[in-house]
Design goal:
Elements lengths: L8 E12 L2 E12 L3 E5 L6 H8 L7 E6 L7 E2 L5 H11 E4 L11 H11 L4 H14 L15 H13 L5 E5 L7 H18 L2 E5 L3 H4 L4 E6 L2 E2 L8
Parallel strand pairs: 3-8, 3-9, 6-7, 7-8
Antiparallel strand pairs: 1-2, 1-4, 4-5, 9-10
Helix pairs in contact: 3-4, 3-5, 5-6
The structure holds adenosine-5'-diphosphate and magnesium ion.
Adenosine-5'-diphosphate (ADP) binds next to strand 2 and helix 1.
Amino acid sequence: MITNHAATPIISARGLHHSFGRTEALRGVDLDVLAGEVLAVMGPSGSGKSTLLHCLAGVIKPDSGSVTYHPGGRTPVAISALPEPKRARLRLTDFGFVFQFGQLLPELSAVDNVSIPLLLHGARRPEALSKSADLLERLGLDGLGSKLPGELSGGQAQRVAVARALVTSPAVLFADEPTGALDSLASENVLTLMLDLVRDSGTTVVMITHDARTAAYADREVIVRDGAMGAGYRASA
Ligand code: ADP
Ligand code: MG
């Protein structure tokens, strides 16, 4: 058998089921996210994409099925079996998150927003600020660190959110329609800069999008329909 390092799963989900009241959001999803890949998750609105992402990232615990995280060189973690305090800890240490809207704290400057995860990790403020400023510069935001989120354009604010999600060098970045609120030029700009950074650092990305142009930036694409993987999908080779 040929071992292909690039095809090692970093997250494997098996038999995920999850309901909200009577709504079955996930009805038996199997998915391997491969280490280092940029995976696009597509599918119609309401098909279960966000619920799937929340299960993979340990934001919610599925009603049944398992999510296993395989951190490089460490013991696999059964995320779906962990109590919330441990899942919260894991999200902070190993994962980054970018959402569509309203994720920056409006009363803090851009650089302060980016620093938050570093400070939560116990970094000292001067180091946190300098690292955050460097990352903002790499995202084309030099000189904008002292601006409040309300003083930035939508695309600039999303780049600040990307910086905040990546400042701790997470193993996996979860992005839920990260450019869904932007026009196509701003969207392309955010994606290009974000993917340059993650490809440099080997960060795995799970990115929900309903836009084929956005999915074209990914290494692989899967489709969720009615809480299940789209036709032709196999979780692993
Ligand atoms: P998508 O991200 O593909 O649009 P979601 O995962 O958000 O889909 O939602 C899947 C289904 O679960 C939808 O029918 C949605 O209305 C429902 N749902 C999602 N989150 C909740 C919630 N917190 N409470 C009730 N229903 C929810
Ligand atoms: Mg969604």
